[in-house]
Design goal:
This protein is an all-alpha fold and 153 residues long. 71% of the residues lie in helices and 0% in strands. The protein has 7 helices and no strands. Helix 1 runs antiparallel to helix 2 and helix 1 packs across helix 5. The longest helix has 34 residues. The radius of gyration is 20 Å and the shape is globular. It starts with a helix and ends in a 5-residue tail after the last helix. 26% of the residues are buried.
Length: 153
């Protein structure tokens, strides 16, 4: 591949990594707002969600922990699967009851998060992920000593 297509393909892991970081950061912020009352608090109204409240508090925990794991690229596929499922639940249990289309029922954000995380389940974390760093370190430790020793000429 040459030209624009080749350059775009070469940049794909880096753009995917940036996508993962942004989606994870925004999701983490939602969880932090709901659990700790920061950044405008729960649902932008200040305050927090009472501990143990179903399903809001559990969703906020998934948002905080899952979002942080996705942001860091640590266990990305598993964290993204749980996050995607929680957003599908939020859409169908909370929003879909109000109207058919996300634009009508206020469910655009859960739909976008759900599909964004589902994409990460299938693509993986891309560049800049701790998973990749840990895998490289593990592979280096498992190489035989003869491969690690430089040969003098």
């Amino acid at each position: 591949m040459t030209g624009l297509t080749g350059r775009l393909t070469a940049a794909q892991p880096y753009v995917l990594g940036l996508f993962r970081i942004v989606v994870g950061l925004v999701f983490t912020c939602h969880g932090a707002a709901s659990l700790f009352g920061v950044l405008g608090g729960a649902m932008g109204r200040g305050g927090t969600i009472p501990a143990g409240t179903w399903p809001g508090w559990y969703a906020a925990v998934i948002q905080l922990v899952g979002g942080a794991l996705v942001l860091l690229g640590l266990g990305t596929r598993a964290a993204a699967l749980v996050a995607s499922g929680s957003m599908a639940y939020a859409y169908f249990d909370v929003h879909q009851k109000a109207a058919l289309w996300p634009i009508q029922n206020g469910g655009e954000l859960p739909v976008l998060f759900c599909w964004s995380f589902l994409l990460l389940v299938f693509t993986g974390s891309g560049a800049f992920a701790l998973d990749g760093l840990l895998a490289r370190r593990s592979a280096e430790r498992q190489r035989p000593a003869a491969e690690k020793t430089p040969v003098a000429a």
